[in-house]
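sanity check this chain:
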Amino acid sequence: MAKRRKNRTHLKGANAREAHSDGVPKSFIIKHGQVGSSLTQLVRDIRKVMEPNTASRLKERHRNKLKDYLTMAPALQVTHLLAFTLTPLAPSLRIIRLSNGPTLSFRVERYSLMKDVLKSAKRARSTGIEYLTPPLLVLASFPPPSPTTPPHLSLLMKSFQSLFPPLSPQTLSLSQARRVVLVSYNQDRGTVDIRHYTITVKPYGVSKRLRKILEGGTSAKSSCSFLDLGNEKDVADFVLRKRGEPGPDGYETASSAESVAGDENAAVDLAEDYVGRNNKKGQRRAVRLDEVGPRLELRLIKITEGIPGKEGAVIYHEFVKKTKKEAAETAAVHAAKEKLRKERREEQERNVKRKQALKAKGKGEDTGESEDEEGETEQGYEDEGDWNEDEEISEGETSEEEVGSEDESSEDEDRPPVKRPRMKGKR
């Protein structure tokens, strides 16, 4: 009998190549400190957005600190750490580029959870299979690089680009484009808005009822894939007339017969086969984005070099502005700290090498010393075992003092025990 091959837990095809390919960013999304249930759910939603290149089931413990994740992440080839915490003013988010920085600190002005966005939407659905591929990143409203553009905006844009895998139109398969993450910069408010969408492809130029016939089934809850026309007298009644709302001539109006996505700008010709029924290459389809959440409005507070615990100079600060002299003094202080840290590190490495050399040298000497010690101990045991002719040994003979002590002990044994008087009454 042939051995059954296990396939369900292994990646295949493009997903396997992508998972093991170099240069794909991986992330940890964590919370630290005392946070509420809403912020905890937001962490789970952000993990859904960053899938599949994130630790979706990462469990934080109360005794875990931020330093623990910073130490463990490089060994697991994690490139980014997103840490949420709750401050007295508002929730905050830090995006840390491992392992040398920079660190971007944001204030979360407003946010909406994924469940709230799905409840408010009419047709938003999430099947789950779209999270098997990374999303497409779209940057909007960021100023183009120029001499007049603030340098922190260019760094902010590059930081968001590094969170997601780079796009390659030559190698990207059309079926992998399932989600979109929109990061837009609001110049009036000075904030960054983040939205998350799923891509939906529908037949173009077809009414809703005719699309049901083409796609099959009347609803997603129905287990039957065939259309139920039992209450209709004719197929035309179902295709051309609203159910329960007959027009003057028995047909529905033109507004109700139009397609859901009837805009010509939203129609495209499929370059490859796409996910879904009848989405074949060369067919014209309408593309629609359905928001699934979460929503985030972030305000950039600070950008620093390095990572928490090894901070360097402050590149940008929203509220604190320093002069050139103060910035130079701060840079000199950080340079001195970095120089001292390197010197201590080098000294520690020299001490480790010196101790290892002494330990190796001691092992070689211990082999000779142990042989000498064994010879000495054996000789000592032999000396103790030899007889000494000058030593007097009187076996069976006793001295007068010993005899006297024996007589006194015998007399004590013959004496009767002394009786103590009994005391009447309670003590």
About this structure: Residues 373 and 379 are 10 Å apart (CA to CA). The longest strand covers residues 191-203.
